[in-house]
Design a protein that fits this description.
The chain is α+β, with helices and mostly antiparallel strands. The protein contains 15 helices and 22 strands. α1 packs across α15 and α5 packs antiparallel against α6. The longest helix is centred in the C-terminal third of the chain and has 29 residues. The chain starts with 5 loop residues before the first strand and ends with a helix.
């Protein structure tokens, strides 16, 4: 009987691949498994879109800045790698929607734009009386009859009308996906809303019934926010995960150009001319890269048509004295119908106190959305100028920033268009037939938030271990 270790390759060193490598190596060590695990990353750094700049006392995230606290996989891994003392919640505060040049407070009790309390919704200036009346039709409309997928826009317009969608739901949801909600898939992004409607008929009543009341806590205790991050920056989280990996198990600057299955093993053809032969593969690359590595398998062809949106973030540091018209809140999103280039702005110094030295202000703005991505290709100076012009329609900023950091993310936001879930399911069925032992995970597939990517990475490790165990048993039987 052969004593050669089974081999696993994880392709892609973003948070999905890192999570998979960490948990797979942990299982190997704890159970003393005869498995070797290698992580391959085409660039010279790990973490993907997670990048942190620490400068002049500021902690600035160039990509994602936090994760939802209720999705526990991220905080669990933060604790695993020894950063539990650096885990912090955001400061809760007012957030706004910019409509017709005016900032409107987010209606209290709304969940992703869906009202669960009537008084704030009735009294808000976000909608006209006719818009509010149309939204009230949700109480009497029958539940959706369609059994297949539909767009987010189609679903919410039917339930709540155009005004609520365009002035509240669309800015919130497209802010997450940088997409067009009239093309984004309901079942791949927020299937829970469909399930609530199917169970309770009224979306408003259903969300009111299923949303737990907020804990009041003590009068002296600050309410916790719904997001968490690492106070030393998310890059420090990536670095800690990398430190925990087996020495020599990470190969950076090595691109996988092609993957082929031969004689029940996978041959990975690398950019350095080498060929790596492994028993199982986790592919955690963006969909376009995945398709290019596996272009000879036609069931990945739909990835050629899957769109991605380009976005940019603009972080600007100011002295506090530069902001002449301050606003009581932590940020705002922008209605698509507004004449603004920015799609959102976070007053980072208020939302994340650890990011900003005393006496300073840190603003982080977002540009780029589906159908309007040209701004991302402009020069840094032009982007900063446009962003400041937008901000000065709601704030009075008298000085230039002490410094600004523009981060461009080309084709970085995968778009889960209608039918995405069914296309993925068909692909998985074909993979099970033709590529057993290969698993796909990451932001292009089943959730693009950090915890979603981490969940996919961890789930892939369980599938790999189950597959390798099956292969080992077959080998023993065959001896």
């Amino acid at each position: 009987m052969s004593t050669v270790n089974q081999r696993v390759a994880i392709i892609g060193g973003g948070i999905t691949g890192l999570t998979a490598a960490y948990y797979l190596q942990k299982e190997i060590k704890e159970k003393n498994l005869a498995i070797d695990c290698c992580l391959l990353e085409a660039s010279h750094r790990l973490g993907g879109k997670i990048q942190t700049v620490v400068k002049d006392g500021f902690v600035i995230e160039r990509g994602p800045d936090s994760f939802l606290a209720r999705k526990q996989s991220a905080a669990r891994l933060v604790n695993e790698v020894g950063l539990s003392d650096k885990l912090v919640y955001n400061s809760s505060g007012k957030s706004y929607v910019l409509v017709n040049g005016k900032l409107h407070p987010m209606p209290g009790g709304s969940v992703m734009g869906i009202p669960t309390q009537m008084t704030p919704f009735v009294t808000t200036g976000l909608f006209s009386p006719i818009g509010k009346l149309r939204a009230a039709a949700d109480f009497v409309l029958p539940k959706t009859k369609e059994q297949g997928d539909q767009s987010l826009g189609e679903f919410f317009r039917r339930r709540l009308g155009d005004e609520v969608v365009e002035n509240l739901i669309e800015p919130l949801l497209s802010g997450i996906y940088a997409g067009d909600i009239d093309k984004l898939s309901l079942m791949s992004t927020f299937p829970q809303f469909y399930q609530v409607e199917q169970k309770h008929r009224s979306l408003i009543l259903g969300m009111k019934h299923t949303t737990p009341p907020k804990s009041k806590g003590s009068k002296t205790e600050k309410p916790k926010g719904i997001f968490q991050t690492v106070s030393t920056g998310l890059q420090s989280f990536v670095d800690k995960i990398e430190e925990k990996l087996v020495p020599g198990s990470v190969k950076k600057g090595v691109k996988v150009e092609k993957i082929e299955r031969k004689s029940e093993q996978y041959h990975l053809y690398l950019s350095n001319g080498e060929t790596m032969v492994v028993d199982s593969v986790i592919v955690s690359t963006p969909h376009a890269v995945t398709q290019s590595m596996l272009s000879h398998y036609p069931f990945f062809d739909f990835f050629k048509e899957m769109p991605s949106t380009s976005v940019a973030t603009v972080a600007m540091a100011f002295p506090q004295s530069a902001i002449k018209k301050d606003i009581d809140g932590t940020g705002f999103v922008v209605s698509r119908k507004s004449d603004f280039t920015i799609t959102a702005c976070t007053w980072t110094h208020k939302k994340w106190e650890h990011t900003t030295p005393d006496g300073k202000v840190l603003l982080r703005c977002y540009v780029g959305k589906s159908g309007d991505e040209a701004i991302v290709d402009q020069s840094d100076d032009e982007i900063i100028k446009v962003v400041l012009e937008d901000l000065n329609q709601t704030m009075d900023i008298t000085d230039s920033p002490d410094f600004a950091i523009v981060s461009r993310w080309k084709d970085s936001m995968p778009q889960y268009t209608v039918g995405h879930k069914d296309r993925l399911e068909t692909m998985k069925q074909e993979m099970a037939k033709h590529l057993p032992g290969m698993y796909i995970a990451g932001g292009s597939y089943e959730g693009l938030g950090l915890p979603d990517c981490m969940d996919q990475g961890e789930a892939a490790t369980h599938k790999v271990l189950a597959f390798l165990q099956q292969q080992k048993q077959k080998s023993v039987v065959g001896v």
